[in-house]
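Task: fold both queries, return tokens.
Query 1:
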Amino acid sequence: MANSDLMEKLVSLCKRRGLVYQSSEVYGGLGSVWDYGPLGVEFKRNIKELWWRDMVTNRPDIEGLDAGILMHPAVWEASGHVEGFTDPLVECKSCHRRFRADEVKDQCPICGVKGQFTPPRLFNLMFRTFMGPVEGEAAQIYLRPETAQGIYVNFQNVLNSSRQKIPFGIAQIGKAFRNEITPGNFIFRTREFEQMEMQYFVKPGTDQEWFDYWRHERLEWVKSLGVRAEKLRLHQHTREELAHYAYDAYDIEYEFPFGWQEFEGIHNRTDFDLSRHQERSGKKLEYFDPATNESYVPYIIETSGGVDRQMLVVLADAYREEEVEGETRVVLGLKPELAPIKVAVFPLVKKDGMPEVARKIADDLRSRFPIFHDESGSIGRRYRRQDEAGTPFCVTVDGQTLEDDTVTVRDRDTLKQDRVATSKLVEYLSEAIG
């Protein structure tokens, strides 16, 4: 399968099965903004909940936070975003489309005209808006381009209220916005996106140790989602690639259909952020160590991943096509804990009381698992629809069910079918799903 074909098939499947829709599609769509449908919102929530469980709930050294999207403009001045969060931009004089200067050469990728670009101009990637009833420079604020700054300015608040001791982390999941010049590749690069970020505060001098630790931890976490190891790699930033705040940085990259691309970064930000906010605000953002009776500005090890990009990694890695009995079977081989629907329940046919029994089983299971009940079409067609949606198990009520109160449970990946007593169904599925 050609790489471009895979992306087209993924986009088509996502719309067909209710994972991802084009935003404002009835009006022709809004460029690189996407809506998550009934299955997409569940899938995305599962990724976020697994991240939160492993990064916050199961760790005593990391606290959670939910900072506001709107922040004081001085935050973005101190962080360097107002001055430095820019890309050089050129415009084609023929079709008037704009591109990053480093992504075009002599020919416009849209209209094909050669040598008709304006000189590069710096373009700030932050969305501007106004707070209050009067528009003007004094009322100008920004939609946050990252979630990390909300963590930094709350460092002392979290430290004082949680009574944590260094090393410790603060984690957050939230929306961010970037006025990307060249968004694209489905949900990979968008103007509105969600981030899963954790900032780990450490004593200067121990930062390399923690940088190595989190680089390893984050790569292993991605593998735990079922992503193939051979499709993952770490890329260390060169000095020319490093962001203005970073001493060292690694990207976790995945081999997408459009090439190797980054979806999570691990950065050693040193004391850049806290020092800048301390200087700009005039408020101390230091840590006092009672064991050594010293104060210092902590160094920060950051793990920053895109929820939407992580979702695309899992989707691309899980998609497969198989030949079964002369037909092509499309499967999303999602880990059961990530699947938006865990169990589908069918009657074999719509007669002999089977639909009523299937509805009762679905109702009984619904309090334990995300359930889909389907009576429409042949049983083979219903299986195929659930394979595409990534549903790991299908329960079928048939003639034997009416005789001995057992059902058929079909495994998506092995196609194995087990007879299970309805009284044991919850136990069976709970063990299989994990």
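Query 1 returned. Query 2:
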Amino acid sequence: MNKIILSFSLLIASLFASAQTPFQGGIYNNTTWTLANSPYILTGSVVVFPGKTLTIEPGVEIKVTADNTFNTGNMLYLEVRGSLVAQGTQNYPIKFTSTQPNPSSYNWLGIKIMGSQGGTFSMDHFELTNSFYGLHNDVAEIGVTHTFNDCIFKDNNYALQLNANNVYNYCTFQRNGIGQAAQYVYGGLTASNCVFNNNICAFTWVYSPVNVTNCIFNGNTNTINGISGNLTNCTFDNNTNGMYGCSDLIIDNCTFTNNEVAINELSYGLVKNSYFNGNDLALLITQNTSVIDNLIEANGVGIRVNGTNPNSTFINNNSICFNTQYNIENGTNQNFSVALNCFCSGDSTVVEDLILDGYDNITRGLVNYALYDDSCNVMQAFIQKINLGENYNLSTGNLESEDFSLQQVGDELFIYSTKDVTIKLYDLMGKIIEKVYFVNGMAKIDVSDLNTGIYILSTNENSAQKWYKK
């Protein structure tokens, strides 16, 4: 009896294992693709017509007949002029793939949402592989948010081309040309706990500021391009470019290891509380960028400063140590100071050898710096190569200006000067908090709303002073 039951069970399992449903052509009525009839083999392109819905059950696999001759018009696709509902589950994801799911092989066209004809989609917990255009819509979806959970986008030329607000939770992007393609018209990107692995580009040119947390970027080429927003608690390892050409971007508590260039051409940005190790070049920054409270060690070059106004950068309170080529490289012909940073040596010869400036190449400007004790807390000497109107009180570590003096009385900061100057008060992120003008040699700032900490005051003559609010 047991043998009969076992044989019957094996027969049923064999029938389900061998079941498959070929399909091509139009969907003119509401249709459901069921798990029992999976996989569905698309032997030709499929179009869901307006007013009709294709519903795909959890666990269904759709295999599109592969064609490796792109641009001949032979690649097959799923086109949605009506509605597509493909809601998988964590245990039973829906799979869209090809009959030849080879690594980095794009051999079907993808899922075309024809929003211009009223096409819509609702998709989650799915896998999309081996397509050329991925999941794409021919119109911008203003005000629409798509949330993707536990999705896998692998071996696509483009994984998604959606001008909408896209949210990714625990998703994987692997071996794609571009994960999320550029959003020139509309859209945003929020990603948490995602993995971006071995893509040419993870995402690029997002229309709205991004919010990326707890994500891993590994083995990509140009990982992130042209974005603004926030990256927090992320890891970048073994990429060619961790990010390139970004601006208005806050990078907080991230780790960058073994990249060719960790951060490339960052402007109007902030990098704080982050760790850089083993990169050929850790940071290349331009104007209005702040680099605060980071550990930058054992890279080829620690920080390279480019741009037209290096004095608009704030490089403060970092440990920039043991980089093999240069700790600091001045890529401009202007002078600036990095005296509020520790270089892990009290030997001026050692520190000087790791700073590239006008002493090494007459086309470059000069860089002032300071020497600290082993704790990196007490300034022992200030090395002034060029007069930038700055002086340092070695007993306090405060930067003091020849052009103005400070006195705090209660919640008011009084500034005195013999010159007709304008004073700007910055926080350590480089944000201007206050701008004041002198009247009869004195200016006053209400500091009651400021938090305790370090601030920088500078004048229109490039004189600067560090001030600590108690």
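Both queries returned. Flag for query 2: Residues 1-17 have pLDDT under 50 and may be disordered.
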